[in-house]
Write a structure and sequence with these properties.
The chain has 337 residues and is α/β, with parallel strands linked by helices. It has one domain: 4-Layer Sandwich (Metallo-beta-lactamase, Chain A), CATH 3.60.15.10. The strands form two sheets. Strands 1-2-3-4-5-6-7-8 form an eight-stranded mixed β-sheet, with helices on both faces. The chain has a five-stranded mixed β-sheet with strand order 9-10-11-12-13. α5 packs antiparallel against α6. The N and C termini lie far apart (50 Å). Bound molecules: zinc ion. The site of zinc ion has 4 residues, from loops. The site of zinc ion (ZN) has 4 residues, from loops.
């Protein structure tokens, strides 16, 4: 048992090997491969790479393609979420295929550099456009999501697509079409896809309404989707702070050796606790402030969390999160009293 655990831990180290320069030579055991023909070398054995054109092996037949750990901008063209890739022996599963046809094509090329299996399934962990509009690039694939995600995509994907066209320009989003989920999964459900069994957890109120966590027990990997960020301040716009903290407690109890966050580069289980502390610290700070001041209007200036200042998006996002969390905690306390 110990030897197996050690083997899993070793497999989870995303060693960046010299990038493969030809798909034909690359096999499923390659640690990393690049979609470009330019050879790049890294001797790093940590998971700090933020290259969005690299596929990193996490376990046998399991890879991660990193998104840029930043906000959507012209430089990253919206490729800001991590994408999971699982070879099943009978086709590939892509988890969160990115924001556009263009990104999906790049993801498809990276997948082609490590396996000859076609993409047969997509899993959308939640309905944000940077996660789901890349469904467009895999027209043959079945799209799997929670019911809440499917419902929200139906209601707003066209608006989200238009917003990204406005933000990034038409060329960046060229040929991107909306592909809605065709198979709904529920909390606790397992699915056998090809030769791999996946288990799903659905959280009704966390990062979004209907977040999906995808567990691959045979490889010891958890794809956390929008539920976990690594060293990046989250966006609480559609979030429920308390529900999110509870969801993270559930994920932490799974004790999976490898975790693929929605944003950021860590792939170890500690990423869950590290991220959860931001939310619990934010909640505690709001509760303290409400007890002392009860003044939401000026709370943003008071409730800085300096420990997280080095995280991506702190300046852009934290103050907004204070306002959002403050409202939620005020409402919760009114209900309690
Ligand atoms: Zn999201």
């Amino acid at each position: 048992m110990k030897a197996r655990l050690l083997a899993i831990l070793l497999l989870c180290l995303p060693v960046l090997a010299q990038a493969a320069t030809g798909a034909a030579q690359a096999g499923p055991t390659d640690a990393a491969a690049s979609s470009t023909s330019t050879s790049t070398t890294s001797t790093s054995t940590t998971s700090t790479s933020t290259s969005t054109s690299t596929i990193v092996r996490l376990a046998a037949g399991v890879w991660r393609i990193a998104g840029d750990n930043a906000a959507i901008n012209a430089g990253n063209q919206g490729a800001i979420v991590n994408t999971g890739v699982i070879a099943t022996g009978e086709g590939v599963i892509v988890i969160d295929p990115g924001p556009s046809q263009r990104r999906a094509a790049a993801i498809g090329a990276l997948i082609g550099s490590v396996t000859a299996e076609p993409v047969r399934w997509i899993i959308d962990t939640h309905p944000h456009p940077e996660n789901v509009l890349g469904n467009s690039g895999f027209p043959e694939a079945e799209v799997i999501a929670s019911a809440a995600t499917a419902e929200q995509m139906q209601g707003r994907c066209s608006l989200c697509l238009q917003r990204l066209v406005d933000q990034l320009g038409a060329p960046a989003m060229r040929e991107t079409v909306i592909r809605l989920p065709t198979r709904i999964v529920t909390d606790g459900q397992t699915l056998l896809l090809g030769q791999r069994r996946l288990r799903f957890l659905v959280f009704a109120q966390a990062h979004s309404r209907g977040d999906l966590a995808v567990i691959l027990p045979d490889a010891g990997v958890l794809f956390a989707g929008g539920l976990v960020n690594d060293r990046r301040v989250p966006d609480l716009r559609e979030a429920a702070l308390t529900g999110w903290i509870e969801a993270l407690n559930t994920l932490e109890q799974l004790a999976m050796p490898s975790v693929v966050p929605g944003h950021g580069s860590a792939t170890d289980g500690a990423a869950i606790g590290r991220f959860g502390r931001y939310l619990t610290d934010l909640k505690a700070a709001c509760d303290r402030d409400i007890a002392q001041h009860g003044d939401a209007a000026s709370s943003g200036a008071r409730l800085t969390l300096p420990a997280y200042r080095g995280w991506a998006e702190y300046d852009a996002q934290h103050r907004f999160n204070v306002a959002r969390a403050y409202r939620e905690r005020e409402d919760a306390q009114l209900m309690e009293n």
